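Hey, can you fold this one?
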Amino acid sequence: MSDPGPEALFSCPLCGGSVSFLLHFRDRDYYRCAFCRGIAMHPEDHPSAEEEKARYLEHNNDTEDKRYQQFVRPLVYAVLRDFTSRHRGLDFGAGTGPVITAMLRKNGYSPEVYDPFFHPDPGVLSEPYDYIVCSEVIEHFHVPCREFSRLTALLRPGGALYCMTELYEDDIVFADWYYKNDPTHVFFYHRRSLEWIRGRFCFDTLQTGKRLIIFRKGRVKA
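Sure. Predicted structure:
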């Protein structure tokens, strides 16, 4: 895009709030939401499906990669702490190598796997789950409100959604932030964005750490 104006011709793809121009970087324009504080790439600058898949193939996630296992271990430990092997789980956006699934299976768990490019079985999205894991996935959502609505609908009462992403903090200079450099990262979440998700989709609790985010659904009261 060229000559970005002060205002965008679209609304925040998460909360629907008003957005204003923030940065032009590598032929991509970024806008910040005044309400949820999320940062969105302009929809016209989103990568195509072919470009996305090519980028993900570069990741080459190996289920035996010790470094990546270390990276996702906090999420895996959280699932092991909160649920048993009898509970049903889903690794959503598992990528080329479902590392989290492999680690959970070594502990006797049996999560299902879904990825629109590499494990595109729509059947697994028609079943309810006790827990869903999304590691380095939610920043790739072109329409995050729609995707969180889908994930929430898949969770049983008492279930939990575990996400890993890097949050945008107020003290981060977005122009210098490495996390924006990946062209498939199209939405960046602020803590206020997470609070909006919690309220909009009626999660009982929200826990946030350095990267690990946990949304929990309440149980149905008798």
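The first strand starts at residue 19 and ends at 25. Let me know if you want another pass with a different chain boundary.
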